């Protein structure tokens, strides 16, 4: 009832609100025909643990995700990334998919434990792991695809978690720096775009606050802030390492990839809602971006967490502080800002009392999140399609951080359909509308240089296992060869790329029809293929116990019965002989 009331409230308010709000000059609903600046870079992305598989091959060490996903009950259906898309064995095949799309760049991540099995350089460097990334990078370059490498997409070496408590411990700063330095040394002659950390918000909140992600800690009210503090310092250190040791020679750029949902005030005439929405965004992207661009946490985080900590009777704030040296060390450590963006929320003010032990990142913000029930919600529960929120977020970043160079490092949508579906018209719609809002943002003056569709392939979606498919390419995980099939969105994205935008209405209107022309027939073929492989699997399952049963009969039962027969006959014979005598 409460959520219904909220939805109705949202409906009423959003109908009456926002129309003359500054950023809606080009109107939320209207489509903008035009093209992107020359040289705009189009790409797609992936991450190591989500796609590589080969979790224990060629000397790779364990990551916290290997361990976490093997613990029962942590991942939907107890799925793991053990083999995933088998990307480790499919460099050439996957690059041919990128060629098909005519991508300018490919964003991937380097698995720390694959090249440093314990996470500690002095323990061991795994040359076989280095070789894999060498090959990937070389093949990309041979195909004129720019590699964008992420150094940390959540797969911390397990040893560092066990020995030190992972990101709870300040020692991660040096260990991460050594790992990054090795990557610069070995790959930096070819990789010119580096992303230190991917989405530290998720690592902090889901890894150390709610425990839904590895390492699964529930240190409410403190864990996320500590982890974030160390990650910000680790990012800054790696940027300085590159700046002082490698930049002169290698001439690359080092950035960070931050995720940020947009928060829109429920009632734009209500000051409290406006402030709550601002807080939502500041506690999200601002938590990391403000120290990196301005040297310290957003004032509103310091105020709210500080006040609530005092109300709890704590002597110091649960939000750690930067010393003045640290502030200047952290400030300005970003050559470009990576943005991962998927969705938007309506925000209203809501007070939470800070009692003993009840504090958390979520209650610190004093707000409630709402959604408009009319927003399309095709896949992941949290992912509503709200394209205009993207433009607002990009404008916010421009205004807050002095118009930095931006690469969109993740944007896309999933589907939750369990049966095969290559005709993903909702994804076509999502990409069309979100990239169009990005184009409007560029026209607003936001300095966006590239866009990365998330993701190239269906893959392991963290605690949701394989149930949420974000790929442009469908991956058949039931087949042990994990074949890839293009969804209709591949055809559509390809057209956006080849036209570098949306040239004119007549042309663009045909794209969707053309993109979906063949998908239903390929759908049928794929479904039949999947049925065949499922049937083969079932047969194998039936066959296996049958064979072992037969083996048991011949190897154990038959000899035993024969021996018994012989013994019985002997006893019977002796009995007969005795009677005869
Ligand atoms: C952000 C994460 O960085 C990425 O790994 C994940 O697939 C997407 N969110 C979608 O949930």
TrEMBL record:
Record flagged with keyword Nucleus: no
GO biological process: carbohydrate catabolic process
GO molecular function: beta-glucosidase activity; galactosylceramidase activity; glucosylceramidase activity
Keyword entries, A-Z: Glycosidase, Hydrolase, Membrane, Signal, Transmembrane, Transmembrane helix
Signal peptide range in chain numbering: 1-18
Keyword Hydrolase: yes
EC number: 3.2.1.21, 3.2.1.45, 3.2.1.46
Top-rank taxon: Eukaryota
Protein name: Cytosolic beta-glucosidase
Species: Oncorhynchus tshawytscha
């Amino acid at each position: 009832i409460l959520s219904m009331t909220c939805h109705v409230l949202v409906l009423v308010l959003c109908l009456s609100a926002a129309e003359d709000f500054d950023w809606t000059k080009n109107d939320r609903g209207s489509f903008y025909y035009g093209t992107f600046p020359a040289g705009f870079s189009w790409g797609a992305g992936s991450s190591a643990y989500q796609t590589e598989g080969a979790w224990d091959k060629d000397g790779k060490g364990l990551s916290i995700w290997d361990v976490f996903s093997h613990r029962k009950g942590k991942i939907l259906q107890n799925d793991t990334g053990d083999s995933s898309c088998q990307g480790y064995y499919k460099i050439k095949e996957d690059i041919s998919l990128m060629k098909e799309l005519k991508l300018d760049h490919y964003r991937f991540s380097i698995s720390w434990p694959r090249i440093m099995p314990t996470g500690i350089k002095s323990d061991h460097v795994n040359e076989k792991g280095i070789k894999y990334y060498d090959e990937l990078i070389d093949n990309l370059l041979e195909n004129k695809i720019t590699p964008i490498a992420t150094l940390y997409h959540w797969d911390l070496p397990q040893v560092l978690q066990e020995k030190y408590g992972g990101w709870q411990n300040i020692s991660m700063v040096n260990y991460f720096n050594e790992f990054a330095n090795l990557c610069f040394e070995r790959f930096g002659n070819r990789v010119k775009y580096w992303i230190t950390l991917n989405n530290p918000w998720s690592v902090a909140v889901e890894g150390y606050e709610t425990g839904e992600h590895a390492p699964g800690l529930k240190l409410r009210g403190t864990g996320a802030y500590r982890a974030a503090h160390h990650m910000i310092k680790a990012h800054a250190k790696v940027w300085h390492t590159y700046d002082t040791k490698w930049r002169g020679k290698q001439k690359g750029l080092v950035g960070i990839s931050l995720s940020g949902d947009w928060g829109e005030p429920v009632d734009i005439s209500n000051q409290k809602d406006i402030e709550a929405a601002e807080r939502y965004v500041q506690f999200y992207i601002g938590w990391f971006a403000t120290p990196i661009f301005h040297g310290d946490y957003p004032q509103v985080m310091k105020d709210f967490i500080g006040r609530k900590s005092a109300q709890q009777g704590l002597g110091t704030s649960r939000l750690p502080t930067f010393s003045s040296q640290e502030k200047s060390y952290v400030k300005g450590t970003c050559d470009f800002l990576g943005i991962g963006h998927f969705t938007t929320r309506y925000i209203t003010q809501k007070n939470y009392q800070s009692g003993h032990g009840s504090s958390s990142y979520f209650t610190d913000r004093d707000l409630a999140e709402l959604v408009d029930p009319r927003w399309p919600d095709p896949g992941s529960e949290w992912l509503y399609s709200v394209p205009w929120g993207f433009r607002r977020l990009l404008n916010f970043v421009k205004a807050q951080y002095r118009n930095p160079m931006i690469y969109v490092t993740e944007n896309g949508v999933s589907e939750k359909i369990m049966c095969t579906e290559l005709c993903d018209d909702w994804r076509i719609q999502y990409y069309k509308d979100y990239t169009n809002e990005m184009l409007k943002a560029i026209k607003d003056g936001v300095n966006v240089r590239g866009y990365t569709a998330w993701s190239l392939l269906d893959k392991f979606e963290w605690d949701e296992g394989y149930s949420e498919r974000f790929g442009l390419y469908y991956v058949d995980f039931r087949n042990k060869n994990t074949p890839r099939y293009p969804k209709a969105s591949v055809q559509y994205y390809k057209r956006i790329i080849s036209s570098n935008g949306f040239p004119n209405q007549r042309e663009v209107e045909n794209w969707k029809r053309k993109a979906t022309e063949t998908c239903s027939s390929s759908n049928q073929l794929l479904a039949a293929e999947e049925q065949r492989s499922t049937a083969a699997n079932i047969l194998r399952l039936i066959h296996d116990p049958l064979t072992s049963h037969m083996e048991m009969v011949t190897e154990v039962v038959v000899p035993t019965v024969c021996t018994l027969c012989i013994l019985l006959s002997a006893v019977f014979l002796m009995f007969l002989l005795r009677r005869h005598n």
